[in-house]
User: Fold this.
Amino acid sequence: MTCGSSSGTTGGCARRCWSAWTRTTPPTCSIRFYPQGVSLVYHNFSWLNSAIWLLLQPLCGWVAACNVTFLLSFLLTGYSTYLLVSYLTHSQTAAFVAGLIFAFSPYHLSHFNHPNLISVQWLPLCILFLVRTVRERGWHNVLLCALSLVLTGLSRWQLLVFAGILMGLYVGYSLLFEREHWRRWTVVALAAIVLTAFLGVLPHCSR
Assistant:
């Protein structure tokens, strides 16, 4: 495998494989800018994808592990969207179509050389468990929503912005049209989601 152009698609994919490989080393790299080396503290890591690569690497090698992680994002995105829409509409047909559309949306396909940016499979789960927290209560929904947020952040920090916008829109909608579901417990549960998610990503914020 060659790195290709730094601005081309080949370079992007190869760079992600390299990023995964560097997670087995300290946060410095002596290979780049040799012999001085360079710090990787502010490098663009995708922690969750790197973990998946590391698990798959002994089985199929680095390049195949990268490809499997890439393909998994499409499968998981479609399935998580299916779960969300199925819950909201109670229609398996609508859920299947929605999963297909989101999994192969222009955004998803346009970032095929950026495995961290296409890891949007956790966003539908954030919304799903947020809705279930408001409508059904239950601390298990709180924990699953927080876990989905943590996984979103560990895939790519900026995806948390998307998650925050989507979740904020639903909270606004719910306050206007679902007031019957809102109690003091609901506010406590939402605060718990934010706090738990923050504590979950905090250890990685300085890396």
